[in-house]
């Protein structure tokens, strides 16, 4: 059994060895979901994953591998990871390979055909990344998405337009959105011509996110102020496990506490999130938050800060 310090070191290794294949794998495997509770439990029970506090929520199959979507808890910070596990459950591959039982760094004992498939997958993922980067440079968002319904700050005819597509329970989103919001708010106060638009795109990894997104839309429609800001400046994960919980009633209860509403799940039945789905398809969304500035995908925080300060 691994000692505490060994487990701590191993957790750091697992969190720290996210290579290009693991990061880019989502484009290869997201289209082939294999949500099997028994399989998820079997993978969750692998000794190394249990000892390093990794929570599995989805498994996909690619050739002789399981591609696992999971959350690693690194000193209180939740990080999305995609370990690859051989189908005999003997090896975990994340840049380096670790023994599934003892966590020792190993040279994977896989036959040549599996190694060839892994190399092919790596090459395909890199190619898809390059194709995506080229497509992003050519892409310009349809101006129809800059509309009053989705305007949070500024004016529709502002010279510069920032658009955020986000999941209200996304850990990365609640870290990214506040400085963007505050920066744009200050820029407007300083007389700059800039506007902020927002679209909901709940991710499957957060089962209660659609409920929160619908509640935001309903509360905004009913005249409550700064609803998106209040929710994206909050952290629901401090109240319940946003990756595991499917208790929408409890999620809505937490929403009601923050906004001061008394909504029930029945109140949300006619609230649609299709506008978020539509824009996500348009930009070929690959994760949240997705940020666009003046119609272009903008993934550099430094560039955005420069825009706000100029």
Which key phrases capture this entry?
single chain, 310 residues, alpha+beta, Glutaredoxin, 7-stranded antiparallel β-sheet, 5-stranded mixed β-sheet, 12 strands, disordered N terminus
Protein architecture, described:
- This protein is α+β, with helices and mostly antiparallel strands.
- It has 2 domains: 4-133, no CATH class; 143-309, 3-Layer(aba) Sandwich (Glutaredoxin), CATH 3.40.30.10.
- Helix content is 42%, strand content 19%.
- The chain is built from 12 helices and 12 strands.
- It has helices spanning 4-16, 20-24, 26-29, 37-44, 47-51, 112-138, 171-189, 209-221, 227-232, 248-259, 274-283, 301-309, and strands at 54-62, 65-74, 77-81, 84-86, 91-94, 96-99, 105-106, 151-153, 160-166, 194-200, 290-293, 296-297.
- The strands form 2 sheets. Strands 1, 2, 3, 4, 5, 6 and 7 form a 7-stranded antiparallel β-sheet that branches. Strands 8-10-9-11-12 form a 5-stranded mixed β-sheet.
- β5 and β6 form a beta hairpin.
- α7 (171-189) runs parallel beside α12 and α8 (209-221) packs parallel to α10.
- The longest helix has 27 residues, at 112-138.
- Residues 1-8 and 11-35 have low confidence and may be disordered.
């Amino acid at each position: 059994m691994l000692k505490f310090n060994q487990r701590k070191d191993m957790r750091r290794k697992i969190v720290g060895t996210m290579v290009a294949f693991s990061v880019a794998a989502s484009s290869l495997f997201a289209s082939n979901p294999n949500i099997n509770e028994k399989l998820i439990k079997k993978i969750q029970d692998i000794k190394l994953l249990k000892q390093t506090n990794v929570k599995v929520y989805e498994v996909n199959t690619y050739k002789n591998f399981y591609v696992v979507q999971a959350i690693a808890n690194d000193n209180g910070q939740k990080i999305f990871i995609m370990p690859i596990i051989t189908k005999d459950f003997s090896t975990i591959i994340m840049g380096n390979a670790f023994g599934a039982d003892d966590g020792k760094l190993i040279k994977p004992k896989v036959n040549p055909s599996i190694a060839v498939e892994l190399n092919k997958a790596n090459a395909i993922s890199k190619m898809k990344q390059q194709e995506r980067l080229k497509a992003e440079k050519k892409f310009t968002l349809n101006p129809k998405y800059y509309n009053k319904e989705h305007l949070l700050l500024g004016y529709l005819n502002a010279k510069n337009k920032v658009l955020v597509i986000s999941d209200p329970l996304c850990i990365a989103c609640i870290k990214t959105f506040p400085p963007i919001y505050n920066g744009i708010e200050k820029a407007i106060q300083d007389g700059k011509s800039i506007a902020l638009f927002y679209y909901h795109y709940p991710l499957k990894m957060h089962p209660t996110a659609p409920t929160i997104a619908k509640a935001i839309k309903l509360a905004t429609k009913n005249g409550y102020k700064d609803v998106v800001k209040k929710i994206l400046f909050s952290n629901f994960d401090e109240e319940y496990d946003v990756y595991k919980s499917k208790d929408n009633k409890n999620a809505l209860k937490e929403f009601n506490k923050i906004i001061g509403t008394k909504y029930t799940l029945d109140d949300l039945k006619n609230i649609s999130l299709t506008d978020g789905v539509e824009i996500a398809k348009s930009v070929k969304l690959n994760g949240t938050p997705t940020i666009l500035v003046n119609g272009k995908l903008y993934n550099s925080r430094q560039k955005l800060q420069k825009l706000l300060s100029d």
